[in-house]
Amino acid sequence: MTGEPVPWDTPGPLSGPIGVPLVDLLDRVLATGVVVSGDLVIAIADVPLVRVSLHALLSSVSERVPAPWPDGGPL
Amino acid sequence: MTQRASGPAAGATYVFAVTRTLDPAVVADLGGMSAGEPVRTLPLGSLVGVVQSVPAHDFTDEAWQQRLSDPHDLERCARAHNEVVSASAAYGPVIPLPLATLYLSDTRARQALESEADRFHAVLRRIAHHAEWGVKVYSSPAPPPAGADRPVPSADRGRPAPGAGLAYLERKRGLQQRREQCLEQSLRIAEEVDAELGKLATAARRLRTHGRRPSDAQGSQVLNATYLVAEQRAQEFAELTRALRGRTEARIELSGPWVPYSFISEV
């Protein structure tokens, strides 16, 4: 592990948590990431961004319903 | 939610990210996804989750559909998620989980995430001392109308109003050809930019290009790429982007440094 702080939140010319362009943020927050369990692809209006399929996710971790896949995730 | 099996507490655990170590104070003051409960760390064996307890009834499938259909809510969620993920990178590499990763309890979250520990460690090794940089290239603005510099053709087959329709068609065809040439050139520039920047990057990915908005008079997007760049090369990468901007005269936008969202699902 490194103790060196990484300046993610330093407001650079085009960066910073608030200053980041929304469309670029959505590219990353919605479209990528380690999918642990559940299928996360959302459709917002007609734009196929991501469809949240949380129902399956929440059901799968409910005590009453067994997970639909072994080992906790499709990956 | 259709299943209210979790009892009267009806809480859920929202997971933002997984990292190796984190001082809880770094995220404690952030708002996260839901007011009321603090963002906190959840020990996961050799790893740490960055989580928040949220009311389950606010985070059902239906609630998400509604929330993510509202542009303001979508933006708020995306920024809140990214804020926590970015802050979590204070002590080293961090793996962001996708927006809306929820478990019914800390116990369930721990079970699911600990079983992925090997994969998480591999990803953390890969992205350590790296950041993601986004690069977008736009085609040149639409070419000027081609009519002015085109001679009106002379009489055509002896008709009385010679060539007016033909000239119009030729002007249109010329305009279309110029547009196509312009786009071809822009695509060539995009390939060149991607190839050059790719040499400095540890990994590269093409993202879906954004559709053209009516307000966008600047030409359409021909490249939406993202690069995993080592910390010590970040400056060189930015300088190369500037140089490419000067050389190609194309509109090139650079964004970053990002937590490497786009480079964590490939291990």
UniProtKB/TrEMBL annotation, chain A:
Keywords: Gas vesicle. The keyword Transmembrane does not apply. The keyword Membrane does not apply. InterPro entries: Gas-vesicle_GvpA-like, GvpA. Its main location: other. It is found in: Gas vesicle. Belongs to the gas vesicle GvpA family. This is Gas vesicle protein. It comes from Streptomyces ochraceiscleroticus.
Automatic annotation (TrEMBL), chain B:
The keyword Zinc does not apply. It is found in: Gas vesicle. Pfam families: GvpL_GvpF. It comes from the Bacteria. This is GvpL/GvpF family gas vesicle protein. The keyword Disulfide bond does not apply. It comes from Streptomyces ochraceiscleroticus. Belongs to the gas vesicle GvpF/GvpL family. Residues 139-164 are annotated as: Disordered.
